[in-house]
Design brief:
Length: 356
């Protein structure tokens, strides 16, 4: 392609909200072998909402006294509530092992209070969504500011709650539980695990709350798939002839359900930011000895995706919010529209393919 053609294409792309940082990115994009898509926020809208929750009565037994004390000291809060806290419009909450109704009194409130307090310190999309759900529970005591707050990337968050007798609360995926509390994790309530698995198989993001190593419950969040995702995947496969992968930090069952919904056949789940870039590097290797390396495009949104965006031959960052991701990317899609990557890829092909 002539420098003029590249200039025109870059200008056209910019008009459509695709900021291309180099002529090289435009050229490589015309001959891609593999496209890797992030799940949360890229294939899905990145706007999860709480679908359902499950609480364990058994775990509440050790917390009940501290919870009663907290309620007693919270100004204006009811001393004890008999009716379930969750409003009819809120998520459905399943009680596990709640035959002993006495000990489940206050369980739901306590569950949402701990979750809300813990997630109030995190800026992850999961955290914001869980916090909103907790804030909507009527009559809950004011949420606490978590102490010793700690994030484990791709796993979950932890804090101490002095208001509740100094317990340590953790929320995150099962891997996080197994890595931080291997002994307790192996004894997790079977009914709770089954509830979690069922929710994951339906494509929900499921996170588990445990307090001092005892699971108190889990939340299932639904992040809707972008309407254009299936069409984008089929364009990449059929028109570009590229191999399409999903790469996500989320659980395998959830990832596979979402992948199936949009027609993606290759899935890499439970990835950390570093393993996402390793995944890209692996896909770049020639398939057979003597062949050239494969050209890989990574499309992601989150700040977590920066190493993968940088590793890819072409890194495409979706949406303007994540500035770090934009810096590591070769192409920045100003709008948060997955379809815009097709605009860019089509322009790049039109520029470089016709002249070959
Ligand atoms: P993705 O690759 O889907 O963008 P992340 O790397 O951001 O995912 O997170 C991966 C997983 O880590 C989440 O699916 C969730 O299980 C867990 N996680 C991370 N942060 C939090 C949090 N603040 N609260 C609960 N779970 C979290
Ligand atoms: Mg992400």
């Amino acid at each position: 392609a002539t420098p003029m053609a590249v200039m025109v294409a870059t200008g056209l792309a910019a008009k459509r909200g695709c900021l291309v940082k180099s002529a090289e990115a435009l050229e490589v994009s015309a001959r891609l072998d593999v496209v890797v898509l992030d799940k949360t926020g890229t294939i899905t809208k990145g706007q999860p909402s709480v679908r359902a929750a499950a609480c364990c009565a058994e775990a509440f037994a050790t917390l009940e006294q501290a919870w009663e004390a907290l309620l007693g000291s919270a100004e204006g809060a009811p001393k004890r509530r008999s009716a379930p806290a969750t409003s009819s419009s809120g998520p459905t909450v399943q009680l596990i092992g709640a035959e002993d109704v006495c000990s489940s009194n206050g369980l739901e409130d306590c569950f949402w209070w701990i979750l809300g307090s813990l997630e109030s310190a995190s800026d992850h999309p999961i955290a914001r969504c869980v916090l909103t759900a907790a804030q909507e529970v009527p009559g809950l005591p004011p949420l606490a500011a978590p102490q010793d707050f700690e994030v484990t990337a791709g796993r979950g968050v932890r804090c101490t709650l002095s208001q509740l007798g100094g317990v340590t609360a953790r929320v995150g995926n099962l891997t996080y539980f197994m890595e931080s509390m291997p002994e307790q994790a192996s004894q997790t309530n079977q009914e709770l695990l089954q509830w979690m698995e069922g929710m994951q198989q339906q494509g929900n993001i499921v996170v588990l709350l445990h307090v001092d190593g005892v699971p108190l419950g889990a939340v299932a969040l639904q992040d809707p798939v972008r309407e254009e995702a299936s069409w984008v995947v089929s364009y990449m496969e059929r028109t570009l002839g590229a191999e399409v992968w999903m790469c996500t930090g989320d659980n395998t069952a959830t990832a596979q359900c979402i992948a199936a919904q949009v027609g993606i056949r290759h899935v890499m789940a439970e990835a950390l930011p570093t393993t996402k870039s390793e995944c890209v590097a692996k896909l770049q290797r020639p398939r057979r000895r003597g062949e050239r390396p494969r050209r890989v495009c990574f499309i992601g949104d989150g700040m977590n995706d920066s190493p993968a965006l940088a590793q890819a031959d072409v890194g495409v960052a979706l949406g303007v919010g994540a500035h770090i991701a934009v810096e590591a990317a070769d192409v920045a899609l100003v709008r948060s529209e997955l379809g815009d990557c097709v605009t860019f890829l089509a322009l790049s092909r039109a520029t470089f393919r016709t002249i070959l």
